[in-house]
Amino acid sequence: MHHGPDMPEAHYDEVAVTGGAGFVGRHLVTALSLLSQKVTVVDHAPLPPELAALPGVSYVRADLRDYGETLLALQHADAVFHLAGNASGTESVAHPRHDFHVNALGTCNVGNACLELGVRRLVYLSSAIVYGTPRHSPIREDHPTGPFLPYGASKLSGELTLRSLHAAAGLSVVIGRSFVVYGPGEDPRRAGGEVSQFLRWHLNERPIPVVGDIDRKRRDFIHVEDLCRALMILADRGADGEIYNLGTGTAISMRELADAVGTATGRPALVDADSSSLADSFTLLADVTRLRALGFVPRVSLAEGLSGLADLLGPFPETPSAKAVFRREAPARRKLTLTAAVGAGEGAATC
Ligand SMILES: NC(=O)c1ccc[n+]([C@@H]2O[C@H](COP(=O)([O-])OP(=O)(O)OC[C@H]3O[C@@H](n4cnc5c(N)ncnc54)[C@H](O)[C@@H]3O)[C@@H](O)[C@H]2O)c1
Prior knowledge:
Layout: E1 14-18, H1 23-34, E2 38-43, H2 49-52, E3 57-61, H3 67-74, E4 79-82, H4 89-94, H5 96-117, E5 121-127, H6 150-169, E6 173-178, E7 180-182, H7 194-203, E8 208-211, E9 218-219, E10 221-223, H8 224-237, E11 243-246, E12 252-253, H9 254-265, E13 271-274, E14 283-284, H10 289-292, H11 302-313, H12 338-344
Parallel strand pairs: 1-2, 1-4, 2-3, 4-5, 5-6, 6-11, 7-10, 8-13, 9-14
Antiparallel strand pairs: 9-12
Helix pairs in contact: 1-8, 3-5, 5-6, 7-9, 7-11, 9-11
This protein binds nicotinamide-adenine-dinucleotide.
């Protein structure tokens, strides 16, 4: 196989991808399989049929909140891409304990298992959510962290745990903080990424609901295929214990995105602006100097990514139902007596 200048080289005997059945994971497993890499998908969801058909791909069902299951699932891997977790900020607001168990404890389990099993390289897919509201733009990796969602706190916890295992026990780990990912295969019921949401509304001939300030809200959108290539480059050449922003270095406003959706489909987009929540109306733009120094160059432009996705979705795809929620209404205060707490069983009074 010919490797371009920024092509990763497959040089691990066996690679495990946690969360390999998910949106990003399915693309990464496919890309690794195309490089003739043996890949184990580790997930508690079933193996998607399209992956089962790929050469060199096997599957272990595991819940990473369970350390024994984690150890068994990773036992043959000499490199691990850790992608499994809750990827929804909204879900983390509704269920912060679940989010923490999966993202923080699950990541600690993966890091510890990698140490115990002598895994040569761990790549952790974290998120730009850990920065919280940016103080300036573009964001370098040394920008202060300050998550405003439980999701950001649990992803940051995962990062801190893995870096501490690197410092204290020599875990070989590289961390990627992804900006907004888009591409084929996002679940419109769960994923809140604007690119596929905007396209889905527009392909249904409906106005695009835009939450926040249409000009001030700007994002760095990275195509999932570029993200997967960046992750493979981190496995190959990332510095141990280091953090890398994973983005393109270009900020697109919600207005520009709606215009690009119109161009990709040949029909101008109508926008239904909702400025009732301005909580995320800021520029979230990656400084990608560090990633570029490893030889990464994004290959899929937003225009190409959008037209590919529009062709794939076709007319009248399922409309998005994922919502962006930043705050939860305060619940009526629960009264717990000792007997009620005991009777209610595990965890009843722990929040
Ligand atoms: N999608 C994005 O825009 C984005 C941006 C930044 C970072 N990320 C990170 O990328 C990773 C993957 O995101 P995604 O969009 O593919 O999410 P996804 O929800 O599509 O995939 C996550 C996968 O993890 C699995 N999983 C969840 N809990 C598990 C557990 N306890 N044990 C085993 N498997 C479990 C799920 O079954 C699923 O297949 C996440 O860690 C997320 O934080 C995603």
